[in-house]
Design a protein that fits this description.
The structure holds two protein chains of two kinds. In chain A, 28% of the residues lie in helices and 17% in strands. Chain B has a single domain, classed as 3-Layer(aba) Sandwich (Rossmann fold). In chain B, strands 1-10-9-5-4-2-3 form a seven-stranded mixed β-sheet. A four-stranded antiparallel β-sheet of chain B has the order 6-8-7-11. The chains are: A alpha/beta, B alpha/beta. At the A-B interface, helix 1, strand 1 and helix 4 of A face helix 1 of B. Chain A: Keywords: 4Fe-4S, Iron, Iron-sulfur, Lyase, Metal-binding, S-adenosyl-L-methionine.
Chain lengths: 286, 201
């Protein structure tokens, strides 16, 4: 921690202590009931909804002087959202920041899980737009609450089945619903389904914050997280024929990038830290 | 004037509250793990871990029920002064229940929340004599399984009351309802949330 760089006039990590306590109590209940959405008194943050206000409030309630923070946006450390949120917490807490997954104790993410396996002791904070996985099927909160209470998740399977009836396979590619600890159906936030298997029995603690919808939920470490599927249509992740145009990886999640106006395109790793590290190791003289 | 001595709380309110919370988050998400919790001193008969937990979690929006031995003028005044929390004598409305192991209230009277809002249940803070991940002499040896635990974890608790043991092994409230229990001993803490399956060895 470097006290010289902390911006004056704000409490540590922006939020006031009363708000942090409220969020902390919600977080403790969230980890005690894995996958259940705990309502909380979401505050206005100095940025618009949809930019990660929920994730930031969770991060602000959790972060401490000894943390090392990494922020990613779609896997990248260097895009506007990631750079801004990292700078925000650096300026208001003075904590160390990093782009290296293995160095971070706290990782706030928008829509990706890092390629490098997370370790015990790390905390992953997801930014969540719509926390309710049943919301697009049932608009009423009263009803969806009841459905969760009764474990009435048939409609979710029908939605996936309709994909199969229409396209021949489950076409849901992101925000793919999961069953947590065999009880709650949960929206994993709009991560690609490629990342879903990483949530299962992860040694890291996973926290989810939805600012506009004012919900917090969590998955403790070593918890079963199963992607919904059917016996004859088992869950599958995306694959690519191409490899990363920069590092050559065939195992990471790839973004398609348009190169010119002639339709030329390339695929590159979405996780910039993973890609950079692979490049560095390839360039190393043997 | 009848004055009651106010005692120091956290030295650094912001940092200490954050560290206590991180320890509580750790033990609640990894049941049976034991964390150091001594950011404050003891408050009368409240051990440092119990007082630190109160300071970190309570405020004017929470209601706490104190067991007989903790319900002294000094404890209630100090808790009110430092946190502004409401002390209640009605078990069914308490968000937090703080008791010594030998003065457990009737567990079936605690707030449970509802199937729609299971998070509204009470958090039970129990001060026990000793906690360890090694087998202690004369202690209850528990084996824990469930979320937050790879395979299984053992926990040894001295002075764990039998009513609590039978609650933990029977789990009368069907999930997602249930009590989340934080065990506090001197300057350490662990937790057994409602998802943990408990066996007594």
């Amino acid at each position: 921690m470097n006290p010289q760089t902390i911006r004056e006039g704000y409490n540590f990590a922006y939020l006031d202590e009363q708000t942090k306590r409220m969020i902390r109590r919600a977080l403790l209940k969230a980890v005690a009931i894995p996958g259940y959405q705990v309502p909380f008194g979401g505050r206005e943050m100095p940025m618009p909804y949809g930019w990660g206000t929920g994730g930031m409030q969770v991060t602000a309630a959790v972060i401490g002087q000894n943390d090392c923070l990494k922020v990613i946006d779609q896997g990248a450390d260097d895009t506007t959202n990631a750079v801004s949120i990292r700078a925000f917490f650096r300026d208001l807490t003075g904590v160390k920041t990093t782009e290296r997954t293995e160095e971070a104790t706290l990782i706030q993410t928008r829509h990706r899980i890092p390629e490098k396996p997370l370790q015990a002791g790390q905390v992953l904070v997801y930014q969540v737009p719509i926390p309710e996985p049943l919301r697009f099927i049932e608009p009423s909160e009263v009803e969806t609450r009841k459905m969760h209470a009764l474990e009435d998740y048939g409609v979710m399977h029908i939605k996936l089945y309709e994909d199969i009836a229409q396209f021949g396979h489950i076409a849901t590619a992101y925000a793919y619903p999961v069953l947590v600890n065999g009880r709650y159906v949960m929206d994993p936030s709009p991560i690609p389904k490629f990342d879903n298997p990483k949530m299962d029995n992860s040694p890291a603690l996973q926290l989810f914050g939805a600012g506009r919808e004012k919900r917090i939920y969590a998955i403790p470490p070593y918890t079963d997280v199963k992607s919904l599927d059917f016996e004859d249509h088992p869950f599958e992740v995306q694959t690519w024929k191409q490899c990363c145009a920069i590092c050559g990886s065939t195992e990471s999640f790839l973004d398609e990038v348009i190169m010119d106006d002639q339709g030329a395109h390339e695929f590159i790793c979405s996780d910039t830290d993973y890609c950079r590290e692979r490049m560095a190791s390839q360039e190393m003289p043997v | 004037m009848n004055s009651i001595a106010l005692q120091a709380g956290f030295k650094d309110a912001v940092t200490d509250a954050q560290q206590v919370f991180r320890s509580l988050l750790k033990v609640m998400s990894e049941p049976g793990v034991i964390e150091q919790l001594d950011q404050s001193g003891a408050l009368e008969t409240l051990c440092p871990a119990a007082f630190s937990t109160c300071l970190a979690l309570l405020d004017s929006t929470t209601r706490i029920w104190l067991a007989e031995s903790f319900n002294s003028d000094s404890v209630s005044k100090n808790l009110s002064f430092h946190t502004g929390c409401h002390l209640t004598r009605d078990l069914s409305e308490a968000d937090f229940v703080l008791c010594r192991a030998d003065q457990l209230p009737a567990l079936d009277q605690l707030k449970l929340g509802s199937a729609e809002y299971p998070d509204r249940g009470c958090t039970l803070l129990v001060q026990v004599a000793q906690l360890s991940d090694m087998a202690l002499p004369g202690a209850t040896q528990l084996t824990l399984q469930g979320p937050g635990i790879p395979d299984q974890r053992s926990l040894s608790v001295v002075s764990l009351p039998t009513t609590l043991i039978s609650y933990l092994t029977a789990r009368p409230d069907p999930f997602p309802l249930g009590l989340d229990i934080v065990l506090l001993a001197d300057n350490v803490a662990t937790a057994i949330p409602r998802t943990t399956r408990v066996e007594v060895n």
